[in-house]
Amino acid sequence: xxxxxxxxxxxxxxxxxxxxxxxxxxxxxxxxxxxxxxxxxxxxxxxxxxxxxxxxxxxxxxxxxxxxxxxxxxxxxxxxxxxxxxxxxxxxxxxxxxxxxxxxxxxxxxxxxxxxxxxxxxxxxxxxxxxxxxxxxxxxxxxxxxxxxxxxxxxxxxxxxxxxxxxxxxxxxxxxxxxxxxxxxxxxxxxxxxxxxxxxxxxxxxxxxxxxxxxxxxxxxxxxxxxxxxxxxxxxxxxxxxxxxxxxxxxxxxxxxxxxxxxxxxxxxxxxxxxxxxxxxxxxxxxxxxxxxxxxxxxxxxxxxxxxxxxxxxxxxxxxxxxxxxxxxxxxxxxxxxxxxxxxxxxxxxxxxxxxxxxxxxxxxxxxxxxxxxxxxxxxxxxxxxxxxxxxxxxxxxxxxxxxxxxxxxxxxxxxxxxxxxxxxxxxxxxxxxxxxxxxxxxxxxxxx
Length: 449
Prior knowledge:
Layout: H1 2-15, H2 19-31, H3 35-70, H4 76-102, H5 115-118, H6 120-134, H7 138-148, H8 150-158, H9 161-181, H10 184-201, H11 205-218, H12 222-238, H13 240-249, H14 257-280, H15 285-303, H16 305-320, H17 322-344, H18 349-367, H19 369-389, H20 391-403, H21 407-448
Helix pairs in contact: 3-4, 3-21, 4-21, 6-20, 7-19, 8-18, 9-17, 9-18, 10-17, 11-15, 12-14, 13-14, 15-16, 18-19
């Protein structure tokens, strides 16, 4: 949990302020010298002194050998002078080449020098094109992912219980965080809109008719009829006085009271007998009539225009009532509380099932070539889609980033990283030049002899 929080905070700090913050961070990276950069710069200066010292050494050797030759020291001085002279030429040529990468030699605005500061933006464009052509092509992405074998490695990692526990915990934390961030009003609005749009777009009467027809054909409604009739019988037994009073209250005022009581008693007994027989007789005519009514109603729901229109009006009225929206709100609140509680409980059925599913998936990914092939194919297709669809955006990130760097600071930083190796070019040029000069002078003397 702490790790996720820290990563989120770092992401928020990085992304806060949008592109300007990202550009500023990139600019700081290329303008601030870290202690490691300072150490590299000191190493470059030491190598520069070494290369320059070697150049001065061969210059001194050339001067001394030339003086010795004029003083009659012998023929060997000509060989030494030729080697030293060629060494100086090689050292100076390589010094010019190395210096021209970063600045104008001796401060002179010679064409095609100070390449890095002057061609920084072009180098960024070329680097972006190079990355796009050689690293973001479909063939390279597929070949690289296929060689890595992500599915088998991921499966072997996921099949270990401790890793499955970790992934389950991370998923639970992410789920809990997402549900915490979501506002109830927004979710309720989305759910309500989805239900209303779905209900308005599709007529429900035919579907209800088919469902009712199937229930009646299978006899699934009989239990509901048994329950209703049984409850009606019990209600009549408990409220006999209420039924009698209702019948007597509806009698004309001119009838005698004893007649009203007799009629009420008779109506109650007949009603109780009817309900009792309907409860105890599965083949009661009223049950058959109810079956026929439900079958006809199911047919009307599917084919009768007037019935279907009335059902649609009723549907609109029901969906428009505030009680229905309150029901949606209460259902979402209860569902969210249940999911959050299950995500927090390590022994909840939700987390146990997720963990078991991850272990099973990991085992299949590690040992089933068919599963590996499918998952690798999905990953390759996804990666290819990303690089082919967003290749321009990816490469523009490189070019735009390089374009935003300060030329002088960029030059200093690049020189700090590669300048030490470039000084070896000067040293090698001095040594190779000296050897080449010695060889050329030796061949020339031999041919002249």
